[in-house]
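pipeline: protein-struct stage 2 | run 1193 | N-acetylmuramoyl-L-alanine amidase
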Amino acid sequence: MHKRPKNRRRGAILAVVGLTVLAALAAVVLYLAFYPPQADRTAASAQEPNGALRAASVRFGPEGDALRSDMSADEILAEARSVAQQARARGMNGLVLVVQTREGAVYRDWAVPALEQMTAGDTLFHPTDGLALWCQAAGEEGLSVYAAVDQSVYDPSDKWQSLALERLARKYPVAGVRVYRPAAEGSFFDTYEPLAEGGEIVGVTRAAWSQPQALFLHAVEAARSGASFAGAAFAWSDLGGDAQTLGLMLSALDTADVPALLNYTPSTQLAVSYPADGATIYTDNCFVMGTSDPGQDLTLNGAAVERTGTRGTFGVLVAVQPGDNVYTLTQGEQTVTLHIRRPVPQPSEMETEPTEPEPTPHDSTQEVEPGTAVRINGWLVSLLYDPSGDGNISETVRDGAVGVVQNCVETTRNGKITWAYQLTSGDYVLAYNTTVLGQDVERASFSGATAQQTEEGETLTFQGAGTPVIYSNLVENTLEMHLYDTDVAPDFSVAGSQLVKGVEVTALDGGAGTRIVLSFDRPLWGHTVEFADGTTQVLVKPSPVQAQDPARPLAGISVLLDPGHGQDDGGAMGAAGVEAPLEKDVNLAVAQAARYRLEQLGATVHMIRTDDTFLSLQQRNQKITELQPDFFIAVHHNSVDLSVDANQSAGTECYYFYDSGKQLAQTLVQNVAAATGRPERGAFWGYYYVARNATCPAVLLEVGFMVNPAEYEQVSDEMTVWATGDAIARSILACVPAQ
């Protein structure tokens, strides 16, 4: 009778305890629902990438890149591993996973509906968590993971959504959470905007693949302005495209230590830069150049001056009459008066009776007897098929080559008569480029050659005696050489070579010498005939190939850049005058931009000069032979005589001497013109000294016109210089054979 109250008390206690436990469990569940355990922050997927982010962007759902059908956890992990492995192979260091779209989410949170494709096979105690599996797969490949939510489903004012994303960042080993913002119409880039402090991730749209330089310029401009820039994400569906374009964009993301280039702002003060006030002009016309305020009208003697640029630099062709000429430039309240004098012919000058011309003097060179041996003096000397003009070049020979004279003719150079010696080859050398050796010079003779491997290729040293005049022609995997006044053993061979696979020896017609043909098992890139310490040497370079690293396709490629002029040699003056950047300055700026871009792509870059110094043309050409680069580009800017309308001279052109430089010249013209909006003037043969080296493709690039006001504003603009440097780098990449 008395036990019933006790049992009731015990039951009440148990009930309270039970409710307390349930309440505690509920509290724990509720706490965990709102504040899940912190994910492993040491996981590879949770780490910020080393350097700029290069990410594959993956979308989920029926229309996405992954989870397109009902999948088990094992199937999801297998797919994630496949994507992660391919991303790593394509040069990526991260994944951007668009984990929340209108179709649902690929992660677990009570406030967000999960994708049906992920949850179809779930049980109560075995729910599938796609994001956890993708983080696991990414971590196995050392890839960072950024979770992104589509802007169309994200409302930052909704506190429940914000809390859900905070839980995502806490619960999963991700490096960050971003909001995906689609690009505006006409824009190159989508943006992954950080939800918290952090750098911007640029999403590369499909349009950017046709203009990869846009990403490079975006990254450089961000770095120059001090903006935070984390990297870029590439749509997974686009990554099977052109590997070269992908490499250009991947490399563009490494924006460490962006150098300052010209840092020039054009003056808006009304001023004349050319000619000087009071100048004497001898031509019918003069191109007057200067600076002005682009926001105000400009007149010359009351007539409007058309300015083709946007920053106020102007140029106008004026007629110059005999006597004193006065020109008044007016802009707002400013006025500049320019005086030009053109001499007036005196009657005595016009009526002077013709006189007998003075006889042309002869220089100190001498005629020599046929059979006389002469040695070439000079780093580069032309052998001419017609001695009357310097451009009539058949071959270029180097200092130390010995030829035999067959005939002598007179020609004229620099206002004097000089002798030209016709050699056994039939071509002429100007006598002042030689030293006369006499009649008793031993004929060259070779029994074979030995090869020595170098970093760039091989040096073939001929065994025997003599340094003969040699004509050479390289066609793919065959090097044909004509050695004049030379005997070669019929069994001539090259010992120790890893490149030469065959040798053919035949006599030249009429006993003029010997023909040697070397064959190789792969195309050669360049060659040079040298005479070192009295020996005959042939330097041969095998063809380079692009590297396997997608982000550094030019690894192993060397480039020599030559910013023209320097120091007291300023080159052409620009339309803004001598106080503004001269040609030497913009040449250096373009070369520095090209160097930076090439190094991003993995190339080793050498510079003829890195500051305001000067080297002679011979020193510049000698650097090519010394360094044996894979490419040589002399960077210059054009000019015209200022008696014509320089507004009509515009565009990019490039010159090559050897055919090996023709493709590079053509590609440079196309890419630089496209990058800057200039006309393509073309690629032309020319005998510019610095490009006369067959070691590698060697060209002289004329980027634009210094005295065209519109082009001067471009060539002195910082971002246009960067665009030019990028175009040069892309041109070199396009000329390197793929493996």
